[in-house]
Structure formats: structure tokens, C-alpha cells
Specification:
Length: 229
């Protein structure tokens, strides 16, 4: 397996995978809060043995600094927000925070809607089935955006960075398989929100490159799993 690179004292490291939405959550937080870090990308189809020493589940994201290790995306993101003050992403008022976390929890119910490999390989078999993907996004997020610019208010918050990777993947379907799931007519608030989010510096820094993803997908379909993802 691959050799674990040495970590310099005092340096923050993120173990990631380029197309993992959960790792993207943490990259968004790091970018938004302008936290210096280095990244080690993991081939999740050929996991190095040392990965399980960092996280017994063998999953990313994982944060490491000075022998301190944190994993699970939501835990990583809350840790970063607390450890690196300034540009706080979580409200202090308990009820407002609870409302935000309820919205964030909705993502856990929609994991099956974010499988880009499944989308591109015809997993949903028909355009009608693809369009059914619209329902949960409309239910949770179109309505939330009717009264605010962002998902939990008029400024970027943890809710946006937690949920954005899943919304971005749905919009990618138009370029990947030619199906517009969240159309402007069906989801006007989400359409405006997406245009706004694509202008955020942290989103620009972590945005999926469609051409590179297609190259990766083609290699993946042949059983080749590049190490640089």
C-alpha cells in the first residue's frame, strides 16, 4: 500500500477524496475560514492499511494535527469552527442552532441521491426516475429559501456548507447525463441560491471539475482507481 507521508509538527492535515461529498464539506469549511492545511487524498477503492489507524471505519474526511485526530464530516466541521474562531458558521442561540441542525440532518436522509457513479451509469433507468430526485430537495430546501438568501438566514452558515455538496451533484446531472433535475421553473429559489453559491470563494475553491470527473469516471468503470483523488 501507499506510504504515510510524515506530518510536520503544528501543521493541520486533511485526509480526503476529491469526489467525496462528505470530504468536500470539510474542504468548504477550511476554505471559508481560510485555515492553512495540507491534503492527503485517499484511494478509497484501495485503502492503505494506515488509514484504519486514523479512522477505524476507513472513511474520509479525517483531520490530524499534532497527534490529535478528528473524523466524521459534521464532527470535523464543528471542531474547525470552534478551534479556529472568526467567521463563525454556527449560531450561539440554542433554538436557532437547533433549527439549523435539523435542516442539516435532512442530508442524512438523502445519501442515495448523491451517487454520481449511479447517476452516470443509468442507475435510475429513466428520466422520470431522475426527476423524482427533485422531490426531497424541493421539500427541504426550496421552501427554506423562500424567506432568506441562504439556507439558514441571509449569510453563509454551516447549513450551506454541510448541504452544498449534495446540491452541486444534482446540478451536475445536466452536464453529465443531460437531465435538468432542479430546473428554474420547478425550483426558482434553488436556482437563484445555486447561482449565489457558485460565486462564494470557498465553493469556487472546491467545485467539481466536470471534465476531470468524467475522466475519473471512465477510469473507474474500467477498474482503474487513480491515487490523486
Amino acid at each position: 500500500g501507499s506510504v504515510l507521508p510524515p506530518l510536520e509538527p503544528g501543521k493541520l492535515r486533511l485526509y480526503s477524496m476529491l469526489y467525496c461529498p462528505f470530504a468536500q464539506r470539510t474542504r468548504l469549511v477550511l476554505a471559508h475560514k481560510r485555515i492553512p492545511f495540507e491534503v492527503v487524498n485517499i484511494n478509497l477503492k484501495c485503502k492503505p492499511e494506515w488509514l484504519f489507524d486514523k479512522n477505524p471505519l476507513g472513511l474520509v474526511p479525517i483531520l490530524e494535527k499534532d497527534e490529535r485526530i478528528v473524523y466524521e464530516s459534521a464532527v470535523c466541521d464543528e471542531y474547525l469552527d470552534a478551534e479556529y474562531p472568526g467567521l463563525s458558521l454556527l449560531p450561539k442561540e440554542p433554538y436557532v442552532r437547533a433549527r439549523m441542525q435539523m435542516l442539516m440532518e435532512s442530508c442524512g436522509k438523502m445519501r442515495k441521491y448523491t451517487n454520481l457513479h449511479g447517476y452516470c451509469n443509468g442507475y435510475f433507468r429513466s428520466q422520470e426516475n431522475y426527476l423524482l430526485l427533485r422531490l426531497p430537495f424541493h421539500k427541504f430546501y426550496e421552501n427554506a429559501l423562500k424567506s432568506s438568501k441562504y439556507l439558514a438566514g441571509d449569510s453563509l452558515s454551516m447549513a450551506d456548507l454541510h448541504i452544498w455538496p449534495f446540491i452541486e451533484r444534482i446540478y451536475l446531472l445536466k452536464e453529465l447525463v443531460g437531465i435538468e433535475v432542479l430546473s428554474p421553473d420547478a425550483c426558482p429559489q434553488l436556482t437563484q441560491y445555486t447561482q449565489r453559491m457558485f460565486q462564494e470563494p470557498c465553493v469556487k475553491a472546491t467545485r467539481i471539475d466536470v471534465k476531470k470527473y468524467i475522466e475519473y469516471r471512465n477510469a473507474y468503470s474500467k477498474g482503474v482507481f487513480p491515487d490523486d483523488v
